[in-house]
């Protein structure tokens, strides 16, 4: 046999093996698979199908197996899942998968499904591509189940590109050095599409590799906080938090809500001056450094180590005199110190900052990038969310930027800077350090009760360092105004108005920054009005008042209002039990951080409008328990268990079965109505409270965010119920504004 005959023989074997994998069931179930394949082959766009000669073969084999059947693709998929054979029969499971989320673009999904089918057909004929085939089959099936929400926004528009162009788009998205995507998880998911498509386009040869079972495969995640310095001697700490082992496939919103948890953490303290070999003394010193840094982060007015106004004036006055002198060795040092003071950055951070240039290519300011995972949501959601920008430009004083080409200052070392500061300290009897200079922006704005989100955006902090960064939407103008007030303050301390003259930047007044999930008022009005109409329609008829549809709509309506009213994180048993609520005072006890160490619960006060809806829901539960008493004992018992606090408040009903409130069940049920991630109320309300000038400490307390190592209402807390009622009243005004007071069913 020659080489060509051998290749044909192996191709024939590969085809037979593929058909056995594609049609592994009885004739009746295979007919369902064949019918779906015929549908996909007929709808595949010509700019994709023209690249595949295997299409006619696939159609012929499917037509041979087609005959009338009453079985649906969903039943075939359930059979595979129930028999726990998804890992073996992944090809028919992929073919039988149907799009469960009604808010998704079905035509786009069908095109991807059809292109995937013809691609894996070619790869199967070629052989040795089993890993790629399984990966893309599982990926499309999970997408159909709604388990790829974060990745969905990055999928290229398949109708817009030809097959080679589509592969090129995937190549750009999965290039880890140049890709705009920061999440390694999303890039990996896109690779599951990219590799099979590219291999089928280029007719790449497959390969096999041996993988032992000795590899450590347990999932785990950790967050390393930015290094925090206590002084110029190098005493510092980093904190490794959230070291846990759980699901690898957390959605983006789960990662957001998890950042506020204080799971077991490890704090690493470094001190170059430490030479003592006594372990107990080293531990005591490390704890003292940690306590000092935490106290420093509180920016207390009584902190004797803080940067005083006198020290600021001495530094600015000396630096400006040096700059006025002109081209000296100390000129660059003075400008570097002024940039650290105005930008709130250390030397290392400053050198990594991107420069904003004018039309003449001279330095005019600096650029911050505030990129969130929620910025790239799928196109179907764009009509209900805000358009967000992730680039911010901040102007710098002309006096400082003259003669500056970049922020590198390569000829200036730490030794020269410290020597310059020592001269200032000796002359004015001060104690100015690099740590004080780089931390003054945070110190000053914190004392002025500026929201930490604004401070961290100006300083360019990593979003993982502050959970509130994920949740907040605010106009660029408010951030810029805060920054300009800070510059004016620095100028006023030295009584030098010239320092307040900033470079001109392009106007960006209407630009929004941060989370796109601060929903427009009219959109929320439409949402609750539509839900209310569905409920009212069901309540008019005795036969439908206690139906599954009415129960689920009432539950969703109440849950959405409670989400806006109390900021409860989406968890199993969402919104707790009835015993967690005190209806007379409207107080609600929330414990949505069970993974945390210690007690991290909080108490908030429900708005009056939300309390009315909640009481109405309990009335419905009482009536439903009586109604189902003689019809369905199991459902009646579940209703009674809500009232006696034996079970959680909310549950769903599906085909005479009780479905407990878990985030995935909520997502599937609310998708046809409002298909956003389940924690969108937390994004919306935090942005709303910031708009209404609620103090940041109160907002953090309501959100359940940790600050300075302690939670609100923990020991030494100064918060009280009256302050919580302030937030409750603001939210109540908002609920009235979106029409909920009129729409209580």
TrEMBL record:
SUPFAM superfamilies: DNA breaking-rejoining enzymes. InterPro entries: DNA_brk_join_enz (IPR011010), Integrase-like_cat_sf (IPR013762). Keywords: DNA recombination. Gene3D superfamilies: Intergrase catalytic core (1.10.443.10). It comes from the Bacteria. This is Integrase. It comes from Photobacterium pectinilyticum.
């Amino acid at each position: 046999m020659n080489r060509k005959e051998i290749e044909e023989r192996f191709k024939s074997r590969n085809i037979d093996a593929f058909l056995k994998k594609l049609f592994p069931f009885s004739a009746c179930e295979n007919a369902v698979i064949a019918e779906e394949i015929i549908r996909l082959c007929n709808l595949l766009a010509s700019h994709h199908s023209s690249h595949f000669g295997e299409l006619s073969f696939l159609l012929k084999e499917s037509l041979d197996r087609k005959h009338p059947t009453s079985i649906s693709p969903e039943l075939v998929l359930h059979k595979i899942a129930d028999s726990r054979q998804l890992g073996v029969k992944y090809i028919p499971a992929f073919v039988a998968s149907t799009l469960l989320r009604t808010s998704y673009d079905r035509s786009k999904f069908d095109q991807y499904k059809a292109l995937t089918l013809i691609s894996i057909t070619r790869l199967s004929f070629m052989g040795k591509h089993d890993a790629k085939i399984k990966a893309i089959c599982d990926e499309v099936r999970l997408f159909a189940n709604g388990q790829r929400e974060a990745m969905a926004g990055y999928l290229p528009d398949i109708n817009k590109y030809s097959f080679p162009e589509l592969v090129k788009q995937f190549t750009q998205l999965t290039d880890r050095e140049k890709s705009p995507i920061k999440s390694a998880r999303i890039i990996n998911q896109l690779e599951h599409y990219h590799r099979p498509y590219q291999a089928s386009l280029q007719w790449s040869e497959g390969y096999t590799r041996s993988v032992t079972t000795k590899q450590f495969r347990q999932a785990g995640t950790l967050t390393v906080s930015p290094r925090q310095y206590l002084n110029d001697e190098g005493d510092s700490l980093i904190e490794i938090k959230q070291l846990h082992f759980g699901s690898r496939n957390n959605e983006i919103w789960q990662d957001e809500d998890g950042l506020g948890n204080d799971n077991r953490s490890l704090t690493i303290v470094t001190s170059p001056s430490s030479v003592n070999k006594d372990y107990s003394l080293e531990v005591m010193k490390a704890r003292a450094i940690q306590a000092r840094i935490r106290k420093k982060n509180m920016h207390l007015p009584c902190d004797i180590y803080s940067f005083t106004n006198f020290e600021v004036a001495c530094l600015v006055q000396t630096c400006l005199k040096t700059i006025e002198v002109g081209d000296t060795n100390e000129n660059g040092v003075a400008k570097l110190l002024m940039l650290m003071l105005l930008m709130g950055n250390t030397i290392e951070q400053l050198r990594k900052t991107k420069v904003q240039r004018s039309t003449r290519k001279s330095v005019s300011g600096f650029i911050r990038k505030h990129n969130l995972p929620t910025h790239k949501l799928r196109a179907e959601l764009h009509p209900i969310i805000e358009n967000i920008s992730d680039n911010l430009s901040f102007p710098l004083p002309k006096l400082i930027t003259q003669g500056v080409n970049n922020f590198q200052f390569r000829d200036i070392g730490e030794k020269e800077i410290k020597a310059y500061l020592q001269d200032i300290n000796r002359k004015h009897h001060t104690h100015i350090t690099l740590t004080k200079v780089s931390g003054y922006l945070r110190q000053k704005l914190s004392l002025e009760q500026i929201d930490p989100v604004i401070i961290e955006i100006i300083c360019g902090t990593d979003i993982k360092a502050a959970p509130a960064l994920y949740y907040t939407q605010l106009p660029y103008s408010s951030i810029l105004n805060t920054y300009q007030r800070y510059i004016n303050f620095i100028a006023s301390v030295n009584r030098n108005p010239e320092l307040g003259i900033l470079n001109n930047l392009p106007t960006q007044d209407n630009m929004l920054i941060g989370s796109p999930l601060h929903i427009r008022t009219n959109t929320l009005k439409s949402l609750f009005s539509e839900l209310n109409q569905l409920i009212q329609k069901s309540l008019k008829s005795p036969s439908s008042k206690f139906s599954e549809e009415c129960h689920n709509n009432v539950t969703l309506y109440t849950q959405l209002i409670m989400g806006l009213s109390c900021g409860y994180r989406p968890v199993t048993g969402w919104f707790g039990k009835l015993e967690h609520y005190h209806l007379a005072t409207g107080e609600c006890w929330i414990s949505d951080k069970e993974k945390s160490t210690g007690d991290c619960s909080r108490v908030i006060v429900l708005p009056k409008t939300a309390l009315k809806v909640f009481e109405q829901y309990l009335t419905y539960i009482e009536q439903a328990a009586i109604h189902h008493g003689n019809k369905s004992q199991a459902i009646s018992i579940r209703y009674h268990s809500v009232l006696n606090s034996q079970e959680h408040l909310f549950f769903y009903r599906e085909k005479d079965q009780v479905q407990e409130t878990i985030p995935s069940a909520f997502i599937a049920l609310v998708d046809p109505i409002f298909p956003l991630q389940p924690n969108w109320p937390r994004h919306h309300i935090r942005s709303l409270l910031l708009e209404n000038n609620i103090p940041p400490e109160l907002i953090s307390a309501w959100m359940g965010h940790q600050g300075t190592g302690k939670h609100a209402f923990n020991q030494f807390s100064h918060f009280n119920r009256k302050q919580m009622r302030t937030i409750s009243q603001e939210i109540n005004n908002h609920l009235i504004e979106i029409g909920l007071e009129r729409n209580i069913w």
